[in-house]
Write a structure and sequence with these properties.
Elements (H helix, E strand, L loop, with lengths): L19 H9 L2 H18 L18 E9 H25 L4 H4 L5 H5 L21 E8 L5 E7 L6 H14 L1 H5 L9 H11 L11 E4 L8 H11 L2 E3 L4 E4 L2 E4 L6 E2 L2 E4 L22 H6 L4 E3 L10 H4 L2 H9 L6 E2 L3 E2 L3 H9 L4 E5 L8 E3 L5 H13 L4 E5 L5 E6 L2 E10 L1 E5 L2 E4 L4 E4 L15 E8 L14 H5 L3
Parallel strand pairs: 1-21, 3-11, 4-5, 4-9, 9-10
Antiparallel strand pairs: 2-3, 2-18, 6-7, 7-8, 12-15, 13-14, 13-15, 16-17, 17-20, 18-19, 20-21
Helix pairs in contact: 2-6, 3-12
InterPro entries: ATP-dep_Glu-Cys_Ligase-2, CP_ATPgrasp_2, UCP005522
Organism: Methylovirgula ligni
Protein name: Putative circularly permuted ATP-grasp superfamily protein
């Protein structure tokens, strides 16, 4: 792993153009003032009640995600290139999902081994041949990207099932505006606060074609004990829709209704934050008490839209991820704008041999893993952990991929010990509706608060930053994009 790309400072020690005002602010702000603002941020988040739970830990109590007062800054030209790459990737993912649940042309072509799709636990044969509203499978995508050099963003993973974190993006911005209005006044920061409006418009646009009048939308949550329940209630409030649990809905004659004090009210769109298996005990797990009996039948009948569609989880699979450059070219006839991180598929004997020989240098991930769990970071692993993963890889190589240990880019971060660089990633949120693909300029920046740590997940001790897309005086130096965004938006 080479030296990390410093997003604020050039190799010669000069400050990059988009960070010049941030650098001056950090120089002029006394350490005790930064410490005071950090404490104020924690107090604000605690009052708001923005928490998450870590399952399986000794201390599974609700926690605050640490917030860093120093924003992460991206120039508008850099953002434009990233945005265009996100449009391209999400379009390809939607086309891939429509194909594998339809004609399966990509499997017939031999580009993907059929078993990598058909034997995948998140591939649901019950979706085969089912036409989803407007042929859109992924209305809300969270695409995790990283920088490892000055030239490009790289996609680390795709999150298509129930991507979370947008509430932190919005709350981070509100808190930042309250705590650093002086810094805001010096920048033209692109807004993110219109995300709920854009999401609501997206959900309305994907209502079943038979919907009469204004579609009725609800947000379906597993309930208050879910780790992301705060976000569910936050978004329902911002969207102005009802937050419901499975018991609040009923299905009659393949139509979904919400129980109200005035009697049943028809539901047209469900923004669901429940995994496939728990959605409907009649179609999936029979002992699920979180879902709605008959919901999948109503979905098959075309009487309700589920966002995201059932069966999208296969798009999160890290083995599928390794084929994304080929998937983009297969469906769009274009080279991918956003690169993948180099990936070894351990299911392939030559790749497995390489991974086993270089395990102390690599990151190994379960193909269906998430949240930083079930992974090995070779350079930081003990001999016992290396031995355990060696056995896992030999026993079930199909369940793992490996990647180089990336030198994730760093941003300045205000810590108790002072301001220091820490590794970051970024999760932009991409919305796909019948009227096009959109992404608000910014996203959730996650930061590894421990010195040297590359794990940014909140469940593993990471924090978050506000992400600023700002005017960049060097925008004109950026080469033109080889991609037509308007064309991409018309491909769905």
């Amino acid at each position: 792993m080479g030296p990390s790309f410093d997003e604020m400072t050039l190799p010669d020690g000069e400050t990059r153009a988009v960070y010049e005002k941030i650098a001056r602010w950090l120089e002029e702000t006394p350490p005790e003032h930064l410490a005071s603002r950090r404490a104020q941020a924690e107090l604000l988040f605690r009052r708001i009640g923005i928490t998450f739970a870590v399952y399986g830990s000794k201390d599974a109590a609700e926690r605050l995600i640490p917030f860093d007062i120093v924003p992460r800054v991206i120039g508008r030209a850099e953002w434009k290139r990233l945005e265009t790459g996100l449009f391209q990737r999400v379009n390809a993912l939607n086309m891939f999902l429509a194909d594998i649940y339809g004609a399966q042309e990509i499997l017939k072509s031999g580009l993907l081994p059929p078993d990598i799709v058909l034997n995948n636990p998140f591939y649901l044969p019950v979706m085969r041949g089912l036409k989803v509203p407007h042929n859109i499978y992924v209305q809300i995508a969270g695409i995790d990207v990283v920088r490892i050099d000055e030239n490009d963003f790289y996609v680390l993973e795709d999150n298509l099932r129930t991507p979370s974190g947008v509430s932190y993006m919005l709350e981070n911005r509100e808190v930042m505006m309250r705590l650093a209005p002086d810094l805001f006044a010096e920048h033209r920061v692109a807004p993110v606060e219109n995300y709920p409006d854009v999401l609501l418009a997206t959900l309305r646009s994907v209502a079943p074609e038979s919907t009469a009048g204004e579609p009725a939308i609800v947000l379906l949550t597993p309930g208050q004990y879910n780790s992301a329940y705060y976000e569910h209630s936050f978004l329902a409030d911002r969207l102005g829709v009802e937050l419901v649990e499975g018991r609040d809905l009923l299905v009659k004659d393949d139509v979904v209704y919400m129980r109200t004090t005035e009697g049943p009210k028809r539901v047209d769109v469900i923004y669901r934050r429940i995994d496939d298996a728990f959605l409907d005990p009649l179609a999936f797990l029979p002992d699920s008490v979180l879902g709605v009996p008959g919901l999948f039948s109503a979905y098959k009948a075309g009487n309700v839209t589920l966002a995201n569609a059932v069966g999208t989880g296969i798009g999160d699979d890290k083995a599928i991820y390794s084929y994304m450059p080929e998937i983009v070219e297969f469906y769009l006839g274009e080279k991918p704008i956003l690169k993948n991180v180099p990936t070894w598929r351990c299911r392939e004997p030559a790749a497995l041999a390489y991974v086993l020989a270089h395990l102390p240098e690599l990151v190994v991930k379960e193909v269906n893993g998430s949240g930083g769990y079930g992974m090995l970071i070779g350079p930081h692993a003990s001999q016992a952990e290396l031995a355990l993963f060696t056995e896992k890889l030999r026993t079930d190589p199909n369940n793992f991929i490996a990647q180089p240990t990336l030198a994730l880019s760093t941003c300045p971060t205000a810590l108790e010990s002072g301001v220091a660089p820490r590794h970051v990633d970024l999760r932009p949120f991409v919305l796909s509706g019948s009227d096009g693909v959109r992404v608000v300029p910014g996203g959730l920046t996650r930061v590894a608060l421990k010195a040297g740590s590359l794990v940014v997940n909140s469940s593993q001790g990471g924090g978050t930053k506000d992400t600023w897309v700002v005017d960049d005086k060097d925008c004109s130096a950026t080469p033109p994009l080889p991609y037509d965004v308007s064309q991409a938006q018309q491909m769905l």
